[in-house]
Design a protein that fits this description.
The chain has 268 residues and is mostly helical. It has 12 helices and 3 strands, in the order αααααααβββααααα. The longest helix has 30 residues.
Length: 268
């Protein structure tokens, strides 16, 4: 079973490395994979404890749907469907070896590993369109207040003789997905908090991601204005993304410290 699963997994991970993990939106993938597998081991997943905890018969519908989806996704290069199908195969194998009760105890690590599934392009287009408008509008306002000649048309910003296009990566989705995954990992490992606390903190990640990406676009506008288009679209483009992602993580940690103090304060 392990050999068969690895045959599917290695092929999918190669595709993820080529199509998703090499982009800003999917850069969190390898981190989620490594930490998610470590979490399962930390929570007691051992091959030595595997057995035949659940018969194949009730698992066959799930496994059949997953394998059909895997073949279809791989044949037609639908990486989101392929990864989702691999994830379902993994769940079916765990149920076979450890049973439903034990797999239920691994709910958080398995939910966390779900962040490996790339977001389909049609969902990205729908979600990022308003975010792109919001980020580009606010970035144009901020730079205009600083006295820079910036004009906006849709998601295109004109800076002096240069034009900047606010892409999906700059609209907040990369920060949103990565921040959510890392924040959930932090909450689980450090706080061991309730789902209610986790949901409150996760709900605050969206405004943090939007704020950080507005700061990123403003920084790129200033870099482009002072150093030219090559500087703004070259090495500094990715560098500003990584630096401000670190700022976003610090903001999440600060909010977590504040929330934990407020919620632990006894009522007067």
């Amino acid at each position: 079973m392990l050999a068969g699963f690895l045959v599917l997994a290695v092929a999918t991970f190669i595709s993820l490395g080529e199509q998703s993990w090499s982009t800003e939106l999917g850069a969190h993938g390898p981190i989620v994979l490594a930490t998610g597998l470590w979490l399962l081991h930390y929570e007691g997943l051992r091959l030595a404890n595997a057995g035949t905890a659940m018969p194949w018969r009730p698992l066959l519908p799930l496994l059949a749907v997953a394998l059909i989806g895997y073949v279809f996704g791989r044949a037609y290069d639908f990486i989101s469907l392929e990864t989702l199908a691999l994830y379902l195969v993994f769940i079916a194998c765990l149920l076979r070896l450890y049973g439903f009760a034990q797999v239920k105890r691994w709910g958080f690590p398995l939910l966390y590993l779900g962040f490996l599934i790339p977001i389909p392009g049609w969902i990205l287009d729908r979600v990022t369109a308003p975010l792109q408008i919001l980020v580009s509008t606010e970035a144009a306002h901020v730079t205009a207040m600083l006295g820079y000649p910036v004009a906006r048309q849709g998601v295109v910003l004109a800076v002096a003789q240069y034009q900047l296009f606010v892409e999906q990566a700059c609209a907040g989705m990369n920060s949103l997905v990565g921040l959510t995954a890392i924040s959930l990992f932090y909450i689980y490992m450090v706080r061991r908090a309730s789902w209610r606390y986790a949901l409150i903190l996760v709900a605050l990640i969206l405004p943090i991601a939007i704020l950080v990406n507005i700061m990123r676009v403003v920084a790129l506008i200033l870099i482009t204005y002072h150093f030219g288009d090559e500087a703004g679209q070259g090495f500094l483009h990715g560098t500003t993304g990584m630096a401000l992602f670190g700022v976003a993580l610090i903001l999440v940690l600060c909010i977590d410290m504040l929330l934990s103090r407020l919620l632990s304060r006894p009522a007067q």
